[in-house]
Amino acid sequence: MKLFYTLFLAGWCVCQTANAQKMQPAKAISDTKKSDTSVNTEVNSRKIVTESTVVTQHQVNIKGQRIPYKAVTGTLPVWDETGKAIAGLFYTYYERSDVKDRSNRPLVISFNGGPGSASVWMHIAYTGPVLLNIDDEGYPVQPYGYKENKSSILDVADIVYIDPVNTGYSRAINKDIPGSKFFGVNADIKYLAEWINTFVTRNNRWGSPKFLIGESYGTTRVSGLALELQNSQWMYLNGVVLVSPTTLGIERGEALSAALRLPYFAATAWYHKALKSDLQGKTLSTLLPEVEQFTMNELIPALAKGSQLGDEQKKVIAAKMAAFSGLSEKIILQHNLDVPADYFWKELLRDQGFTIGRLDSRYRGIDKQDAGEGPDYNAELSSWLHSFTPAINMYIRNELNYKTDLKYNMFGSVYPWDNTGNRTAENLRDAMAQNPSLHLMVQSGYFDGACDYFNAKYNLWQMDPGGKLKDRMSWKGYESGHMMYLRSADLEKGNQDLRDFISKSLPKAGVASKF
């Protein structure tokens, strides 16, 4: 658990066996390769290369249509203020190859989170042209491998997946480069904006409609990048997508934080059939609005009163919280209505001998002892590393033909991380206020306990308290967790939501961008 807290979210988030024969091994994808070229890749070496390129040709079937595409895998430099290369950033760029005019072809720029996490998650499980070998609910299946992603958005947009410094194969050129150049909320935004400028220029994509998508801490990153690109690189975006967003620097306070997590508790208890029959019999879409109304209208005011809340009123609130959360009224009263998420993950299925996952509470774990205040480990993260790590290493080397002995960092050290000056929600709001063409979509899994869905809704309400931007903001919910796309039904739904968002956000020819 400590590894996860240190490397994956670092405190910024308030926030079935499949038929293996249905999965295609690596060679099924390799059969579509036509040719490849490489430049300065330092094959089978641990040398850090600031510039390298490998190009391969492929095809993928998306929604019944055969899409030819070029994959460009390599590194581009991060420049310092003097124009000196101080790091090489690893990226994978997919470009549909039967498109001649890219002036109207959208470009999606994709980041994951951590902040020390590679781009692997959305790359080979969500939007990219291949999917790792998992079952329909997202659990590992062997043999390891990957297949075509028939839901990929490559039919409607080109995509670049970027690994920040110390993730994937991205590294500073030597140990003398200070980590402060990269490892902080504002340093991260600044150097990545410069790198994006280099990438867009090198690939002649200045005329293309541009979209940012980030997951988890990546939502903090892209929210800040929206304004940084606009103000420092003079690059204006058409859309930003936040997948399982953090708090984006919006302060909550203890009482508000405690209240806002109840709808997530309710969704998770419903999933595990831990509610009483009157609530368990409802659909999630019927249950959650009821919980949300109670949270906003009764629980927040009650928690704000603290010791001023009378005993009888406190018992009434605790009884309702118990009904919605699957916990006992006694436990809720013992916690003064403020049940920590760690305790919930340990307690909900304690009598069955299981814990539940933090990032995806559909996953169950087994602790050494049933007693305790929190789980021994993150059940969902262990499962994900089981399936993702072999697949990405096989795919990059065998399929994309990028060969290096550098270790692909699923998680890399980015500490100490400077989180001061995080105002990224306000950055995104400013960017939208200044750019009438900029749209926002948020995607959340109901069973995500790290960056929960109701806090994501709260972000939108606080970013736009006057409601002037709401016509350009949207929120989508899915019956899965932090990486909601691991559930096959939500993979298809989530990608279709992305297609619809991109289409809606594209400017009409000749129509001016103005209020």
Automatic annotation (TrEMBL):
A Pfam family this chain is assigned to: Peptidase_S10
Alphabetical GO biological process terms: proteolysis
Alphabetic keyword roster: Carboxypeptidase, Glycoprotein, Hydrolase, Protease, Signal
Segments forming a coiled coil: none
Signal peptide: 1-20
Domain of life of the organism encoding this protein: Bacteria
InterPro entries: AB_hydrolase_fold, Peptidase_S10
Entry's Gene Ontology molecular function annotations: serine-type carboxypeptidase activity
Protein name: Carboxypeptidase
Organism per entry: Pedobacter cryoconitis
